[in-house]
Amino acid sequence: MNENENNNQEQEIDVNHLIKIRKEKLQELQEKGKDPFEITKYNVTHTSKQVRDNYEQLEQKDVTIAGRIIAKRIMGKASFCTIQDSEGKLQSYVSINDLGEESYKEFKTYDIGDIIGISGFVFKTKTEEISVHAKELVLLSKSLRPLPEKFHGLKDVDLRYRQRYVDLIVNPEVKETFILRSKIIKEVKKFLDNKGYLEVETPILNTIAGGAAARPFITHHNTLNLDMYLRIANELYLKRLIVGGFNKVYEMGRMFRNEGMDIKHNPEYTGMELYSAYNDYNDMMDLTEEMFKTVAQNVLGKTKIEYQDIEIDLGTKWKRMTMIEAIKQVTGVDFNNINTDEEAIKIATEKEIELEESKKTRGYIINSFFEEFVEETLVQPTFIYDYPIEVSPLTKKKPSDKRLTERFEIFIAGREYGNAYSELNDPIDQYERFLAQVKQREAGDEEANEMDEDFINALEYGMPPTGGLGIGIDRMVMLFTNSASIRDVLLFPTMKPLSEH
User: Fold this and answer.
1) What is the pLDDT of residues 120-142, one digit of tens each?
2) Domain 170-318+380-488 belongs in CATH node 2.60.40.10
3) What is the spatial distance between Cα 253 and Cα 235, in angstroms, rounded to a whole number?
């Protein structure tokens, strides 16, 4: 047994011993008819923040607060404890003279982590700390497991994600990230609502995995005896609604992709897609830029933000470059002068770009060049547009160059935040694109689109020219909260199960 294993074993014995003591305290209370778990309600009148913010009005007035004990200082016949509720911390003065001998004795047995209710009047201590002078204490819930003393400093950061409930207790600043997340989501929806977009809901269980290039999760519907997919995107359903006569629609919700996990990817994530009839990808650029600026200003109060030690200026005019221009700027290679697959393969080989056999075309190579050499260099907000047709199966061709499409992606701090198109509304062209994707699947590409006959059917009824946009909400939250990993902005990220011992 190495030293770390020995330390872990000692800590486990320690914790088990403390749990045993706490259970004994609970049993003693239960035998006295004071089981905290039998309490069903407690009338709280104020939060800690309300007491602090309204001290002048509440001084010497009675309040009732509740929260978790996070500190105790026993000093004979008078003591102090600090509780933490949903809005912060507040100190309480507790004395034997106010509670009586029995209640004060019970208070002294309370543990860090116990949830209590306090009734008393508001005052300031000699050190000018706003506090509640307790007249009555009630144990509302017994904490049977001790809180870790240095949870934030643990080397095993996975523990914070696995036990988010403990993370939120011990590191209350983490809660601020998720409060901001909620505000960001509300502001995005408010922005779109004000622009006349209708929020809708589309199926999460699909019979065809479509709308994006991704490997799906497969499940089974017993009654229909049918394999189904958790959606990888909501695009094709939302465009059906445009066909049906809704001019502006959006949906925000969970998407599921059976892919790798890293600081940017979680198997389930929150995406937002919107579609607007009679608009194109230029309109989507304008909308995106305005959305990010508006949300940042309304949530953070500023448009200049810091992300991982880099100052990002969302408030400036966002840069717009074609993919080919961006590649030329970084590598010197100009794909406007490279017009055949053979020429593209030759330059890819020189630059040591690895290609799958089925992707040895000029379009795929352009995209590979961008991902390999350009993406990480895009620090300030940038729209990269005009993507090769091979990597854009749902996008309109660019009229001036049918090898390209009217598509853009948003890049900030070297990371992609969204994807947008002038949507393909030609059912014949769309059918041919799906066929090409089916061939990719048959060649072993598990992320290629499947044929969606019903979507083709919908397009045959006629879809107006339409602009579409998809935003990765988790990445947007990461940017606005200066979070390095997607796990920092998901309350309960996907985790590999711990091995059973």
Assistant:
1) 999 999 999 999 999 999 999 99
2) no
3) 12
